[in-house]
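Deviations from the work plan: none for this task. Representative record:
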Amino acid sequence: MTKKRPQYYLYHILVGGFAVLLLYPVIWLFVSSFKESGDIFVTAGSLIPNPFTLLNYAQGWEGFGGYGFGTFIKNTVVFVIWMLLGHLISCSLIAFGFARLKFVGRGFWFMIMLITLMLPYEVVMIPQYIIFSELGWLNSLKPLVVPAFFGHPFFIFLLVQFIRTIPRELDEAATIDGANTFQIFYKVILPLVVPALATTAIFTFYWTWDNLLGPVLYLNSPEKYTVSMALNMFLSNETVSNWGAMFAMSIVTLVPVFVIFFIFQRYVVEGISTTGLKG
Amino acid sequence: MNARLRNNLWGYFFIGPFIIGFLAFTIVPMLASLYFSFTSYGLFDSPKWIGFENYIKMFTEDPRYLQSLKVTFIYVLGGVPLRLAFALLVAMLLNAGSRAVGWYRTLYYLPSLIGGSVAVAIMWRNIFGDDGIVNLALNSVGLDAIRWFGEPTAALWMLIFLSIWQFGSSMLIFLAGLKSIPSSFYEAASVDGANFFQKFFRITLPMLSPVLLFNIIMQTISAFMTFVPAFIISKGTGGPLDGTLLYSLYLFKQGFEYFNMGYASAMAWVMLLIVAILTGIIFWTSKYWVHYESEGK
């Protein structure tokens, strides 16, 4: 290998230095969560907690309203599981229909689906709220998870694009072997779209984990709060000195996001690059 | 049963959930919201038809509405171009690099990954505090500290910075686009003596333009609907002095804080109209700047 040129080092100093600058706020949040609440803004310029304390985590974990932070995490996990079930089942069925089957009105419905992709949620927000309140679904997860069982345009689109890359010869071979349409979907296509389903699952997790507007609208007793609602409550109850606990629980909610990302990075990057899904 | 009928039945069996969901959760609510928009509708009374009154009131009697429209336009027109320019710049920088790029790509993407969360909004709120690290940094380079929560304009820019900070997902899309440009184009241009800027404007930008179009449209729509950062950073008030009262936040407050459901519905329809017009304008201009490969050959 040839000796590295000065440009090489310059490039890495520039690009690497910029990355550090960009992530500095997150590093600062992380470090500050180990400082005593009173010190956080006094020693804001320092990245060394002195004294180092875990008290913030202990305090934050106690939660509020008699419910520990563990409860909020459990609620969010339940929320995520329902959303995953809903999106994976409905979107794979719908995408198979659009990508593989010939039927009257396919083009029309596909276009409708693409249009709903761009529809602001605000337009349906109020009537949806009224409908769900008439059904007696307020203060439950139902208004948030039931719609997931009827597909999500982003993921349908992602899966359609993916299924289109699978050779049709496979379907035809299965038909000759006597498989019906559902068996082709279940036995031929489904095992092959696992990577795209993984992308769907990961983004469903992110969007559900971060969802604030939905829980703000529909959940109103603390025992049902998700983590984003809980953090919002920490903020509303913010007094002069409890930043520490709020920072600590912010870090706690970010950890699963990072962990999932580092394990499944490939699916995330591919999902974004191929469909332009926003992360 | 003949083959065509069977195909249709299978087709509607598979996409059935979408159609049911579309009717139940989109079309019916949309029509209802259109109807509500012409009514006066509070929490405890039934909708009362008032014609176009909500729409007229918005533009003539509600300064807060006009304010929310103004800050939202500044947020969208300031944030989206800057975010995309930044994303393109960094994507080009990474595309020019060698092996460590995978790592940098990951690091630059992280803000986008976590950007929609409440945790990050809380973080943002605190780094821009009076004693926060942003002001420390300003002081250390000899600039005056800014009272980010005291000045409406400064507070709005704080939100715009947060949106620019999350350039990572657009960067990934651009990076994929850049990789698909054949390097022979650049080599040929170099042989002809083209400089960096000529290559950028004659090769990179035209080749990337379809990706750019898609990005501009999606980012504009989602920027217009931004809710979480404004809600968290202003603690739900949209302050100071309505400086961060983004459209979605004001709509939410009208609907669920003041319980003016009819008025909020009218706001939602104006929003839909604005988004549709913006998208239409972007599409219309696209014929002047978007280059598709199949043309011009």
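Chain A has a mean pLDDT of 86.
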